[in-house]
Write a structure and sequence with these properties.
heterodimer, A: 277 residues, four-stranded antiparallel sheet, 40% helix, B: 219 residues
Chain lengths: 277, 219
């Protein structure tokens, strides 16, 4: 016999809550608690709280100026280099507050690597680009270990087969897509736990974009990845969890599947369906 | 602020076309039952002649849905709407196919003496037609509560079918000479019972469209 309608609705609601609870049970790599961020007197982020799970790809979406890139940059204190900025609240990575005075920012940025919108290889050889972080962090003094690490990073970035015969040539001679993967290899070489990507494929053609997206999928087995993207289809393709930002506020964070089929918040739905003015 | 979107026009056109297909399926069922109860074989022929048009409409809706998915990449409620339409269109086409089968049965039965009683079959048809009409209203109004209420009404058709089944089997025993006619009428009843199931599918898809809730195969 069918249940009364009110009971069916209640069951559905509990099933959704149960899914949410299950999602929350995954290990949290980054916990952000009530984060406010200011550029001078202007508040750019308002009370952001979010759990970013380990070995999961989390996408930040939202219109230009919504604060998603600013928030990404709070996760490895990249905003510290901008004068007049101020942070309130906590960002815990593996339980450690990265804004505590005891934090070594260089060590933090080794642990939390970053890939930018525009590929930015150094005007050096392909090999030296990847080896750069290993050298300045004095991670090895052995030439053979260094070579092994560079090769592994290039393999992990799905670039090795394309460059293995020209490691000593300039990185500036690579295509845009290859340069971006080189930057990912450079980030991977110093063995981070978390990789932050700020619109990593926005300047790339569809084929190069597909390679970066495939790479993100492969890398999440080993790393926690956070990606900012303007391309909602890209967020849908690559991420497991999506967060929607608007006017410096986190409106909704949900599984990507739910976000793109049945978001909880009307603002989210209006944005992802293009109804938002 | 809400923006006007080109997609809104396309979704609106898709909704209109699906409701047109629904109206055609309703009309086919109504005319097929008229052919049976009024022994009007011309009406039955009209139903059969119009089926190609219904098939064509279904294919048009399919194409329109594929275009929207490929070119507009709808998300959230837009996506659920398109998915609901792409799944409801073949259901409506199947309902029209059942109406054609009823029309064929009517043409056969109209050449023979009248079957003993078709009252319960007519009642089944009234239920099926009413459910289909209400289901299309629920879809058009994006009304999940109405859709859920219509699903409950399928039981009535099933009960009537069981009654008709027993009645017609009994008539076959009592009057073996009329067994073939009774069997044809039994098939008509079965078509109506299936239409009730199809209307339930439409209602389940309407609930999905409105609430993103999957209620298919749930008790």
């Amino acid at each position: 016999m069918s249940l009364p309608i009110s009971q069916q609705i209640e069951n559905e609601a509990s099933s959704i809550q149960s899914e949410d609870r299950n999602a929350g049970e995954a290990a949290s790599k980054i916990s952000v608690r009530d984060l406010n961020f200011y550029y001078g007197r202007s508040q750019a982020l308002h009370g952001i709280s979010i759990e970013i799970q380990e070995h999961v790809v989390t996408a930040f979406i939202g219109p230009s100026g919504c604060g998603k890139s600013t928030f990404l940059r709070t996760l490895n204190r990249m905003n510290d280099i901008i004068l007049g900025t101020r942070v309130e609240g906590q960002v815990l990575i593996d339980g450690q507050d990265i804004y505590s005075p005891a934090t070594d920012v260089v060590d933090l940025r080794r642990k939390v690597g970053m890939v930018f919108q525009k590929s930015n290889p150094f005007p050096k050889s392909i090999f030296d680009n990847v080896a750069y972080g290993l050298r300045i962090n004095r991670m090895t003094s052995s030439k053979s270990v260094l070579e092994g690490c560079v090769e592994q990073a290039l393999k992990d970035a799905a670039l090795w087969d394309e460059v293995k015969d020209r490691l000593k040539t300039s990185a500036l001679g690579l295509s845009g897509g290859q340069q971006q993967r080189l930057c990912i290899a450079r980030a991977l070489a110093i063995q981070p736990d978390v990789i932050l990507m700020d619109e990593p494929a926005s300047a790339l053609d569809p084929l190069a974009t597909a390679k970066i997206e495939g790479l993100i999928h492969d890398l999440k087995q080993q790393y926690t990845i956070v990606i900012v993207t303007h391309n909602m289809q890209q967020a849908a393709r690559v991420s497991d969890q999506t967060a929607f930002f608007l006017l410096g506020k986190l409106i909704e964070v949900n599984s990507t599947e739910r976000m793109f089929t049945a978001p909880n918040e009307k603002l989210t739905e209006d944005y992802i369906t293009g109804r938002f003015g | 602020m809400q923006q006007h979107r080109h997609l809104d026009d396309e979704l609106s056109s898709l909704r209109d076309r699906l409701l047109l297909l629904g109206g055609e399926a309703e009309r086919a069922l109504d005319r097929a039952m008229h052919a049976l109860t009024e022994r009007d074989s011309e009406a039955a022929k009209e139903v059969l002649a119009h089926d190609d048009e219904i098939d064509r409409l279904e294919v048009e809706i399919d194409r329109q849905c594929i275009d929207i998915i490929a070119l507009r990449q709808p998300a959230a409620r837009d996506l659920r709407f398109v998915i609901a339409v792409v799944k409801i269109a073949p259901v409506l086409e199947r309902i029209a196919d059942h109406a054609c089968n009823i029309a064929r049965a009517a043409m056969d039965l109209n050449n023979e003496p009248q079957v003993r009683s078709t009252v319960d079959v007519q009642r089944m048809a009234e239920h099926a037609t009413g459910m289909l009409h209400a289901a299309l209203d629920a879809f058009a109004a994006n009304d999940p509560e109405l859709a859920r209420q219509i699903i409950q009404r399928d039981k009535e058709i099933n009960n009537l079918y069981n009654h008709v089944f027993r009645d017609l089997i009994e008539s076959m025993v009592i009057e073996p000479a009329a067994a073939q006619r009774a069997a044809r009428l039994l098939f008509v009843a079965k078509h109506l019972e299936r239409i009730g199931d199809y209307v339930t599918d439409i209602c389940e898809l309407t609930v999905y469209m409105a609430l993103a809730a999957f209620i298919k195969h749930t008790k």
